Amino acid sequence: METFKKRYQTWTLQTSDDQLEKLALEETFKKLRFEEEVNVLIFTSNSCDLAIKFAKMGAKITLVTEPAKEKILRSLIAKENLSEAFEFLTMKPQNNDNISQFIHLVKHSNKTFDLVFIRHFICKMNYAQAGFFLEDILHCIKIGAKLYMTTYGIHSELSQNYPHIELPVQDRFCPIAPNIAKKYDIKEPICLYSERDLILLLIETGCSVLRSWISSYGNVQSVAVRI
C-alpha cells in the first residue's frame, strides 16, 4: 500500500485538447497505477510534445523519428530534463531497406511495448508498405496493447489538387500540391486515407478497431488493439 501511495502521489495525469492524444494519455496513466514499468512506442516526424507528456507521467519512451529531426527533438527533451526516460530510433518511412533495419532493431531491443502512438508516419509509405510495417510492429507489442493512430485524411486540406484523389487507396501515393506542401513542410509523396481505408488497413494487419473518427482538421484517427 505504501508503494502504491508513493506512486499515486508522484503521478500527475497529463492531458491534451486532441481526443486521440487524450485517450492515449489516460490509458497510460491507468497502466502506471498498477505496473512497475510502462513502455510506449511513439512515431512522430516533427513534435515531441506528446512524448514529453508520457514521460512526465513516468512512462519509458522509445521515440521514432526521421534522421533529420532527431537532433532538435533530443534538444527539446533535454530542456525538460527527461532524457533518461527516452530511447531514440530513426527511420526513413520511404526507404524499404531502412524500414527493415528499423524493425530488426525494435525486435531485438528486448522490449515489448504496452502502447503505440503513430502520428502520420504511415502516410509517407504506400498502402502495401504501411501494411507490412504495421504487421511487424504488432509483433513488438503485448497482446491486448492498444495502438493509437492518426493519418492525413482524404477530406483534409492536403487533398486540395491531390493528383491521386480518385484512385483507390492501394494506388494512392503521390506529392501533394506545391502550396500545401510548403505550408505543411511535406516534401515527399504521401497517401491520404479515408476513415474506411484506415479501418480496413488495421483489420487486415491483425488489429481489432475499437474506435475511429474524423478530426476537426479532416484527419483520420483510430484506436485499435492487438488481438
Keywords:
alpha/beta, 7 strands, 227 residues
Report on the structure:
The chain is α/β, with parallel strands linked by helices and 227 residues long. 37% of the residues lie in helices and 22% in strands. The protein has helices spanning 2-10, 19-34, 49-56, 70-79, 96-107, 127-138, 178-184, 195-204, and strands spanning 39-43, 60-65, 86-90, 113-119, 141-151, 207-214, 220-226. A 7-stranded mixed beta sheet has the order 3-2-1-4-5-7-6, sandwiched between helices. β6 and β7 (220-226) form a beta hairpin.
Please state the overall shape, judged from the principal axes of the Cα atoms.
Answer: globular
Question: Rg from C-alpha positions?
Answer: 17 Å
Largest sheet, spatial ordering of strands: 3-2-1-4-5-7-6
What share of the residues lie within helices? Answer: 25-40%
Order of helices and strands: HHEHEHEHEHEHHEE
Number of strands: 7
* Percent of sequence in beta strands: 15-25%
Q: Helix tally?
A: 8
Q: Mean pLDDT across all residues, rounded?
A: 88
Outline the low-pLDDT stretches.
Answer: 1-9
Assign the structural class, choosing from mainly alpha, mainly beta, alpha/beta, alpha+beta, or little secondary structure: alpha/beta
Q: How many angstroms does the end-to-end distance come to?
A: 33 Å
Major β-sheet annotation: 7 strands, mixed
Task: Produce the secondary structure layout.
Elements: H1 2-10, H2 19-34, E1 39-43, H3 49-56, E2 60-65, H4 70-79, E3 86-90, H5 96-107, E4 113-119, H6 127-138, E5 141-151, H7 178-184, H8 195-204, E6 207-214, E7 220-226
Parallel strand pairs: 1-2, 1-4, 2-3, 4-5
Antiparallel strand pairs: 5-7, 6-7
Helix pairs in contact: 5-6
